[in-house]
Amino acid sequence: MDYAIQRKNMVESQVRPSDVTDRRIIRAMLDLPREAFVPERFRTLAYMDGPVPLTAAEGSGPRRTLLPARTLAKLVQAGEIDPAGTVLVVGAGTGYGAALLAKLVASVVALESDAGLLAKARETLPAVGAETVVLSEGGLAQGCANEGPYDMILVEGAVDEVAPDLLDQLKDGGRLVTVVGRGAAGRATVWRRNGSTFGAAVIFDASADVLPGFEKARAFAF
């Protein structure tokens, strides 16, 4: 399988037609081997037009996936990346989004709660030239305050709601981007910090798997 051709086709057929105009993102996606971040049993799906599985759903836990390439590219573009900035990737999985951002900004922190995915990221990131990414293991909704504050936070999956603790880790003027809602109800949304207040705007429709720790608590019913 010629992954280089598949990578180019992914960019030309999925990313460019989706209003991704930032050439830095286009160049980074053309350069980064997406297949390296996908487990062997799913590797033939690395460039599919949709979420790429990293794990299977087990019990009541959610499956983990790579965001569709178009969704990731549009979220990163909406984050208004600054080459001198510091970015936190929440739910970094095996590290693809963090590696992409490492080509675009000065400093990237990647937070992951799954030890197996984190081990894969630890192995893969140096192999693709993203050894400067700082890896951290912990609960996703709590963020990584000790490495912040951040110019941008990318939540690399969907959430039912965004935790206030995470928004508080943004710098003044910083942006948080993620998908809010499930399935057809999903909306890519960007938050911007202005002092102690946060404004949110929906930017496009999107679907993604909800990350662990971001599920809305079920209301108690008699």
The shape, in one word, is globular
Q: Radius of gyration, rounded?
A: 16 Å
Helix/strand/pairing category = alpha/beta
Q: Would you identify the CATH architecture of the domain at 66-205?
A: 3-Layer(aba) Sandwich
CATH class of the domain at 66-205: Alpha Beta
Q: What oligomeric assembly is this protein in?
A: single chain
CATH topology of the domain at 66-205: Rossmann fold
Quick one: how many beta strands? 9
The ordered H/E elements are HHEEHEHEHEEHEEE
Q: Give the N-to-C terminal Cα separation.
A: 56 Å
**Uncertain residue segments:** none
How do the strands line up in the largest sheet?
5-4-3-6-7-8-9
User: Mean pLDDT score, rounded?
Assistant: 94
Helix tally?
6
CATH H-level superfamily of the domain at 66-205: Vaccinia Virus protein VP39
Task: Determine the fraction of residues in helical runs and give it as a percent range.
Answer: 25-40%
Strand content: 25-35%
Main sheet overview? 7 strands, mixed
Please provide a written account of the structure.
The protein is an alpha/beta fold. It has a domain at 66-205: Vaccinia Virus protein VP39 (Rossmann fold), CATH 3.40.50.150. The chain has six helices and nine strands, in the order ααββαβαβαββαβββ. The protein has helices at 3-15, 23-31, 69-78, 96-102, 115-127, 164-167, and strands at 52-53, 65-66, 86-90, 107-112, 134-137, 150-159, 170-180, 187-194, 197-205. The strands form two sheets. A seven-stranded mixed beta sheet has the order 5-4-3-6-7-8-9, with helices on one face. It is globular, with a radius of gyration of 16 Å. The protein starts with a helix and ends in a 17-residue tail after the last strand. The model has no long low-confidence stretch (mean pLDDT 94).
